[in-house]
Amino acid sequence: MHSQKKGVVPDGHSVTNRLQNELVQLMMSGTPGISAFPESDTNILKWTGTIEGPQGTPYESLVFKISLDFPSNYPYTAPTIMFVSPMWHPNIDMKGNICLDILKEKWSAIYNVQTIMLSLQSLLGEPNNSSPLNAQAAQLWDTDMDEYKRLLMQRYEEIED
C-alpha cells in the first residue's frame, strides 16, 4: 500500500497536462507583448517565447526571443529561462542568463508561463540595479540613458521568423 500522497511527486503526465493548460491559458489571455509555445509537438518541456519591450522604456518596439526549459518536476521547480536574443540589461548577462528572484529563490508553483513572461517584460523597464549581472548596464541605466540605448541597439538583433 502506498502512503505517498497523490500529486506530491509529479509524474510526467501531470507536467504535460499543466503545460498544455498553461499554453491554452496564455493563448486565450491575448496578453499584448508576450507569446510562448512549445518548440515541437514531441517535447512540451522546451518552449520558445518572445517578449516585446514595454512602452516608455529603452526596449520599446524591440522584440526579444527567449528559451524556456521546464524540468520534469515542474511546477515544483522553476523552469530555466534564457534570453536567446543578444541583450543589454542590468539583470541579464551577455550569455542570456537572467537574475530574477521568482526564477530562483522566490519560485513558487503558483507561477505559470504567463506570470513569468509578464515578470520578464516588466523587468526590462524596471531593472533591479542592486543586484546586477551587467554592472556597466546598471550604472548607465542610472546615469546616461543615451549611452545605455546606444549600447542596447549595438547588441540588438531583430528576430527572423
Automatic annotation (TrEMBL):
It is an enzyme of class 2 (transferase). Belongs to the ubiquitin-conjugating enzyme family. Residues 14-161 form the UBC core domain. Keywords: ATP-binding, Nucleotide-binding, Transferase, Ubl conjugation pathway. Its EC number is 2.3.2.23. GO terms for molecular function: ATP binding; ubiquitin conjugating enzyme activity. This is E2 ubiquitin-conjugating enzyme. Pfam families: UQ_con. The active site is at 99 (glycyl thioester intermediate). One of its GO terms (biological process) is ubiquitin-dependent protein catabolic process.
